[in-house]
Amino acid sequence: MLALDRWLSADNISLMLSTDNRAELGRILTDIGCYLDDNPPALSLPPSAYTSPELWQLERERIFNRSWMLVAHVDQLAETGDYVAVSIAGERVMVVRGGDGELRAISPICRHRMMPLVETGAGRTDTLTCQYHMWRYGLDGRLRGAPHMAANKDFNPRDCRLPQFAVATWNGLVWVNLDADAEAIGAHLDLANDEFASYRLAEMVQVESWSHEWRANWKLASENGHENYHVLGLHRQTLEPLVPGGGDLDVRQYSPWALRIRVPFTFPLDVKSLQLNEVQKSNLSVLWTFPNSALAAAGERVVWFGFIPLSIDRVQVLGGVLTTPELAADSAATAQTAQFVTAMINDEDRLGLEGVQVGAGSRFAERGHLSPKEQPGMLAFYRNLAEALGGDQTGSG
Ligand code: FES
Ligand SMILES: [Fe+2]
């Protein structure tokens, strides 16, 4: 276990906390630190991990300011001016295709007096015009025009540019990182190439995408995606016949940032447009990127998810469904894809996790014992969480 002193030493943490709050955060971090032990406790996180403002601040600083997050598929950003704008733990980020063909992740906060230049969401635009006083920026973030500013000799419009974050594409999926100097995420995801290359992800087309909001802490969404045990309950009518909740997970951690989970199907899939081996046909293969992004390959159909934290108890769920060009052109397969989409993006997880968030606020809530069916994935997530909060995770910028 990491020494508490190190987690909370004055120069190691920039939060100003009261003694009580510091003690509470210390208790949570002590519990989380135990997941680094060789024999971690088979317990869920303490309830306060989902409600503590102090832990949320620490997560913003240690995790969301320096982690890669999946926010789009390139099909959503194909044309000049196509953009996706998100709010990552309170920080606005806009990923936009420039006139030069480059994808950029920029801070869409006006350099004049801080007005956001776009709402969160997706769209297409040719310039970014601030509605407050009409300063205008190009898609590369450079200032193009600012009314009545020429007489201000201290202001040089050529120096005025929106800050940039890191952006990367991996097999058609678009990732952002608030740390502009972050190490490339591709180096970690490429460790999964042996298992995922035959899905031909880079050639897949996106046939569906969505953005929902759940009233739950982001960790509940990530945990939920690291186990399949809940299919017994939340998805007993929809997913249980295909990926039973009683199946045993096979978890492989490639690096602190990348992890694969195999979830057995009830029967092997009939795959027409890909050359998959028996293991791939017989398992849902999920590639997780810590802390909050995943893609789940079910034969010729792949779903991606980004669970973007909005606040301590709200998460934006971004996602899309990809398939091979052959399948996308096949009308019978399209009907099956639609069924698959409906099953994957049903409201069942939202209802479940919003309930758990309410439960985490109960004075009587306690840590729960984990089933062996859920332990492999959840304990891996908790260990990565402990490493990230402890500042131990290698591979960050
Ligand atoms: S805040 Fe944007 S133009 Fe004034
Ligand atoms: Fe689920």
From TrEMBL:
InterPro entries (UniProt xref): Rieske_2Fe-2S, Rieske_2Fe-2S_sf, Ring_hydroxy_dOase_asu_C_dom, Rng_hydr_dOase-A
Gene3D superfamilies xrefs: Naphthalene 1,2-dioxygenase Alpha Subunit, Chain A, domain 1, Rieske [2Fe-2S] iron-sulphur domain
PROSITE patterns: RIESKE
Tagged with keyword Transit peptide: no
Keywords, in A-Z order: 2Fe-2S, Dioxygenase, Iron, Iron-sulfur, Metal-binding, Oxidoreductase
Domain Rieske: 68-176
Cofactor requirement: Fe cation
Catalytic class of the enzyme: oxidoreductase
Keyword match Metal-binding: yes
SUPFAM superfamilies, per database record: Bet v1-like, ISP domain
GO molecular function, one term: iron ion binding
UniProt EC number: 1.14.12.1
Superkingdom of origin: Bacteria
Spans traversing the lipid bilayer: none
PANTHER family attached to this UniProt entry: CHOLINE MONOOXYGENASE, CHLOROPLASTIC
Designated name of the protein: Anthranilate 1,2-dioxygenase large subunit
Species, as recorded: Mycobacterium simulans
